[in-house]
Amino acid sequence: MTPSEIEAAVKAAIKNGNWIIRADENGISWGGFKWSSLGEWTEASDWEVSPTCGGGLHGQDRKNGGYISGTRLVFCDTDGVHVYIGDNKIKVKRARILLVNTLPEGLTVGGSLNLSGCTGLTSLPEGLTVGGSLNLSGCTGLTSLPEGLTVGGSLDLIGCTGLTSLPEGLTVGRSLNLMGCTGLTSLPEGLTVGGIIYR
């Protein structure tokens, strides 16, 4: 896919809600399963529609987040139904990696978003809105958070050692955990936190 084709596919996926966020180890996920290259479709040969683990490609979507396993973050468009497994992950039959270690601008996630341990993640998009909690613990490549970030639940930044600043006007609905953020020396103006700040 060309860069313009990828951009168009990302926009279409966001508009239609046909996307997932997941993580892997440089293209290898649990059990040694290998994902196709950027822009190529990957299909689960063991696909099952039942709401149980296995039998699909796992991740988190706009409604259901929490599951993640790996240091490389990928944003994918999907083809077909999203099957919900409990309240922390989903599975799909086919997905195609469109972005690596980044997320599209203006992304809105209705539930929680777990990006913990994604060391390859160096930035988040402006205007990111997360209705639930946002877990960025162990994302050591992050040096800052974007303007316009809104988190309805808790924001977990444990061990984000590369983080040197927080955006002005950051709004967090519940608690803010900054334990282990050794590069962060001050808090921004206009910070609003609905719960406890842990430092």
Overview of this protein structure:
- The structure is a single chain.
- With 199 residues, this protein is mainly β.
- It has one helix spanning 3-16, and strands spanning 19-24, 28-29, 33-34, 41-43, 57-59, 72-79, 83-85, 89-92, 94-100, 108-109, 113-114, 129-130, 134-135, 150-151, 155-156, 171-172, 176-177, 192-193, 197-198.
- It is built from one helix and 19 strands.
- Strand 7 (83-85) and strand 8 (89-92) form a beta hairpin.
- The protein is globular.
- The model has no long low-confidence stretch (mean pLDDT 94).
In short:
This protein is 7% helix and 29% strand. The chain contains 1 helix and 19 strands.
Written as H for each helix and E for each strand, in order along the chain, the element string is: HEEEEEEEEEEEEEEEEEEE
Mean pLDDT: 94
Output the strand order for the largest sheet.
10-12-14-16-18
Q: The biggest beta sheet, please?
A: 5 strands, parallel
Q: Given the C-alpha coordinates, what overall shape results?
A: globular
For the termini, the CA-CA separation is 44 Å
Residue stretches low in confidence (pLDDT < 50, at least 5 long) are: none
Task: Provide the structure class.
Answer: mainly beta
> What Rg do the Cα atoms give?
17 Å
DSSP strand count: 19
Helix content: under 10%
Helix count, DSSP H or I runs of 4 or more residues = 1
Strand content: 25-35%
Number of domains: 2
Layout of strands and helices, then pairs:
Blueprint: H1 3-16, E1 19-24, E2 28-29, E3 33-34, E4 41-43, E5 57-59, E6 72-79, E7 83-85, E8 89-92, E9 94-100, E10 108-109, E11 113-114, E12 129-130, E13 134-135, E14 150-151, E15 155-156, E16 171-172, E17 176-177, E18 192-193, E19 197-198
Parallel strand pairs: 10-12, 11-13, 12-14, 13-15, 14-16, 15-17, 16-18, 17-19
Antiparallel strand pairs: 1-6, 2-3, 4-9, 5-8, 6-9, 7-8
